[in-house]
Design goal:
Radius of gyration: 24 Å
Number of strands: 0
Oligomer: single chain
Shape: elongated
Order of helices and strands: HHHHHHHHHHHHHHHHHH
Length: 310
């Protein structure tokens, strides 16, 4: 599930926490790293649990319309295609999915306003109307509908983002990545009729397929351990490589990214240094200032060349 890009982001976050609070130990930092990794898979479970939650809300609204005073003919005899979609039924009946969500206390209970809003919004979408009007019915078709829901309705939903921020410090900015994982799960469910809990690390997936892969968990632990151990040394090197004026304006985010880049270049000589530099430049676009991209790129390039790593 977790690839090297998102693992570098997680390494950046825990090292930034250490930079802001130097009293943290390596053990505490690595523990925070592991908690962050597991939280991403918890978010995946939460977002997959949206399927039976939304379907249940649609069923509730359908029944309420049917039993209201003076219902229309359409309300009396509604199309039940969405309410009876096979993807929701598959998840509701999957013992592993239910066991995991219960164990981790993952639930959409209490988010009635968001569920109501999502169902009402879906009714206005052309792709949903096309699905409801189709005379065919299959698990693949249900899966394709949910894939569109995940592509269209969640990423920029402010109410959902607010809920995620209140639920976990790790969740809100990882939603786009998790939605991609959910979409891949839905494609597999439509094809195989089964839900599988994705392994935590991408390397675990490759190993299960018989493909040789270095452990991603080992990679990120070694990276954080190396950056933590040499944080002061690398930070001093960064400070000595810029002017006094730039040193006073050096952002902690930029410093942490450069420290990680140096640590990766020294710890993993098999990874091309330019690849490592590009990864931290990409991260700087999202977590630092508009000028950080050029600064991180230029300084990492100069320092790795100076240490004979490029």
């Amino acid at each position: 599930m977790l690839n090297r890009r998102i693992l570098r982001v997680k390494a950046f976050k825990v090292l930034y926490a250490y930079a802001e609070n130097p009293q943290l130990t390596l053990k505490e930092t690595l523990s925070g790293l592991d908690a962050s990794c597991e939280a991403t898979r918890d978010l995946y479970l939460y977002m997959m649990a949206a399927i039976p939650a939304i379907t249940g809300e649609a069923a509730r609204l359908t029944e309420a319309a049917r039993t209201k005073f003076n219902p229309t003919e359409e309300e009396l005899h509604p199309r039940m295609k969405f309410v009876e979609n096979g993807i929701s039924a598959l998840l509701e009946e999957d013992p592993d999915f239910n066991k995991l969500t219960e164990k981790k206390k993952i639930s959409w209970a209490g988010n009635d306003a968001l569920l109501f809003s999502l169902v009402q919004t879906l009714k206005t979408r052309p792709y949903f109307q096309e699905y409801m009007e189709s005379e065919t019915s299959s698990l693949r078709e249900d899966a394709r509908l949910w894939q569109r829901v995940y592509e269209e309705e969640f990423e920029d939903n402010e109410e959902l983002l607010s809920i995620l921020e209140d639920s976990s410090i790790y969740w809100a900015d990882e939603l786009p990545y998790v939605l991609g994982t959910c979409i891949r799960s839905l494609e597999q469910m439509g094809r195989t009729g089964r839900w599988n809990f994705p392994p935590l690390y991408q390397s675990d997936i490759l190993s299960a397929q018989g493909k040789p892969a270095e452990s991603d968990r080992d990679f990120v632990h070694r990276l954080v351990t190396a950056a933590f151990g040499k944080y002061r040394e690398y930070s001093t090197l960064v400070a000595s490589s810029v002017s006094q004026w730039d040193r006073e304006r050096l952002y902690t985010t930029d410093n942490v990214l450069i420290v990680l880049g140096l640590a990766e270049a020294e710890t993993f000589p098999e990874i091309p240094t330019k690849v490592s530099i590009n990864e931290y430049v990409e991260i700087s676009k999202y977590y630092s200032t508009p000028k950080s991209r050029g600064f991180v790129n230029g300084l990492l390039d100069r320092l790795t060349k100076g240490k004979g790593l490029l």
